[in-house]
Amino acid sequence: MITIRKSEDRGHLNYGWLDTYHTFSFDQYYDPAHMHFRTLRVINEDRVAPGKGFPTHSHRDMEIITYILSGSLEHRDSMGNGSVIKPGDVQRMTAGTGVSHSEFNPSESEPVHLLQIWIMPSARNLAPGYEQKSFSEEERQNKLLMIASAEGSDGSVKINQDARVYTSIVEPDAKLIHNLKEDRYAWLQVARGSVSVNDVELNQGDGAAVNREDRLVISASDRAELLLFDLA
Fold first, then answer.
1. Fewest C-beta atoms under 10 Å: which of 26, 97, 121, 212?
2. Phi-psi region of 98 (alpha: psi -120 to 50; beta: other; left: phi over 0)
């Protein structure tokens, strides 16, 4: 069964410097029907204006993944990490017992467009951690590339949850196949373009909750970018 979460049905807030869409309840957007899907707690699509950003704030007991679509984001945290994240980069932060960080758009002219993802961890009070890896466009093209997993296998960042996160840049007429094992669930998020999953059409910003499906067949009519979550 595939249940669509339409882009226009997401929570939307525009602060001028930040234009943000929330797939699940977050901050000032509360929707008891869309609190999370399995261990997937947050998918926020953010556009941050040039020179603006999130001042230092704190998190705990969450696995946080940042995925950049365009522009760049400067990160600094209480663990001593500092970096600029660009398209193709995947950042993982284990908030655990507590982490403070800030995120700013360092460009004076270009907005940054990103997805911020929160996954609930397998345990509370974990030691805070940080990891960042880069994946080329060629690596992501017309294949499901694993970018996060519990094992940190195949070059992915390591998260503290039984979940696998894949990304792909899908060209027209390409076909991707993902087999779901028994008792596994999936969430597909369309970052750009339009795709079809098992003949269900999804457009940019749409998400789809998948259960009781053992095989996903994904194609695109135009160039698209997506994230696929394989969840316990």
1. 212
2. left
- The residue whose two tokens read 């500092």 is 82
pLDDT of residue 173: 83
Residue 69 buriedness (CB in 10 A; 0-12 / 13-18 / 19+): middle
pLDDT tens string 45-63: 999 999 999 999 999 999 9
For residues 126 and 95, give the distance between their C-alpha atoms in angstroms, rounded to a whole number: 8
**With contact defined as beta carbons under 8 Å apart, do 176 and 219 qualify?**
yes
**pLDDT tens by residue, 2-50:** 999 999 999 999 999 999 999 999 999 999 999 999 999 999 999 999 9
Query: Look-up: residue for tokens 């093209």?
Result: 141
At 52, the amino acid letter reads: K
* Residues 128/88, Cβ–Cβ less than 8 Å: no
DSSP per residue, 139-208: HHBTS-EEEEESS-GGGPEE-SSSEEEEEEEE-TT-EEEEEPPTT-EEEEEEEES-EEETTEEE-TT-EE
Q: What is the DSSP string of 45-106?
A: EEEE-TT-EEEEEEE-S-EEEEEEEES-EEEEETTS-EEEE-TTEEEEEE-TT-EEEEEE--
C-alpha radius of gyration, the chain, whole number: 17
